[in-house]
Amino acid sequence: MKIYQVGGSVRDKLLGLPAVDRDYVVVGATVDEMLAAGYQPVGKDFPVFLHPETKEEYALARTERKSGRGYTGFAFQAAADVTLEEDLLRRDLTINAMALEVHGALIAPLDKLVDPYGGENDIAAKVLRHVSDAFAEDPLRVLRVARFAARFTQFTVAPETLALCKKLVDDGEVRELVAERVWQEISRGLMEAQPSKMFEVLRACGALAQLAPELDRLWGVPQSAQWHPEIDTGIHVMQVIDYAAHRQWPLATRFAALTHDLGKGLTPADILPAHHAHEARSVKLVAELCERWRVPRDCTELAAHVAAEHGNLGKLADMRPATVHDALMRCDVLRRPERFVQMLDACEADKSSRRAVGLPETAGEPFKARTGAMASLVAMQSVDAGAIAVMMVAQGKPERIAAAVREARIEAIRVARTAGL
Fold first, then answer.
1. N or C end of the chain: smaller count of CB under 10 Å?
2. Closest CA to 377 of 418, 323, 413, 421
3. Residue 223 in contact with residue 278, Cβ under 8 Å?
């Protein structure tokens, strides 16, 4: 029996990055031998065990054979005679197909690296390259490659690997992916260092057009150069999500940044580069995309609110106090103030990334609307709706409660605005 540390932890060690998850492969062992050594079985589809002390996962070396369509159509063989090289051959990318032997608590040094498929060379060359043509048997790997491009932002996808991704798209395999797995990879990619790199790869191989046509069609749609120096809507959205990533905002905010302008893809050609009423179109498209990908509720709700109100929240200072009040009430700010902050974050990404060239460090104007928006929220929160209700009832005017509360909140916004001046 031999044990090897494999996959991402070995890759990250070569890159000088901290290891997040450690995966181990056991070569030359049987299930009975693993059980006798105290390992706990947890695998459903193939033999995976938990170490009796560390609780880390150890898998028996295995091979894979395509047996059907989609990412689930595989037959596995785990046996004592499966070699390490055979196990590594089934992996997606060369940079993930390296191993270091484990001796008790010690791991072999990097000069003892087992690297049968050239992963170390590809790391040096900053290339994402598939291990074998078996890559094309698993459509989920298209999304994984795209996600790795967003993580390792200096890496490029090898032309032959991109060609295999295109083949998976053309063969309809990507359409076989279930919604949960698509969202899992997209959401993980959004949380990487430069999410735009993921969508760049998905567009290049044609996968984005199949998975999110409402997003893919944004490229080539012009916007007014006065407000969007980048002009192209697709480029704008990529700048927005990279800005959100640069600020290290959470997934819900990044997803809202991604989807806030979907409606611009359906703007009538005769009014371009204007995009009148694109917010309403965006809300509808956000709902459709979220249903297709089965996006979690927190992400769905934030994206819908941002799509509907991002235009208004950027110009609250130009609105009358009553209009500001109504806009904030549509955002449900009194019940969900924390979500309102996330909405403002997404709006900042929209506004402040507009003058970005390349990475978001070069972004332009600050999002000045945040101060006024938060001041209006605080003003509305200061109004004691309960006391007003008691007063209206005492005056015999219970039907006036809602109107009186609204008037008090609008006045509070006016006072706060005057004080701010």
1. C
2. 413
3. no
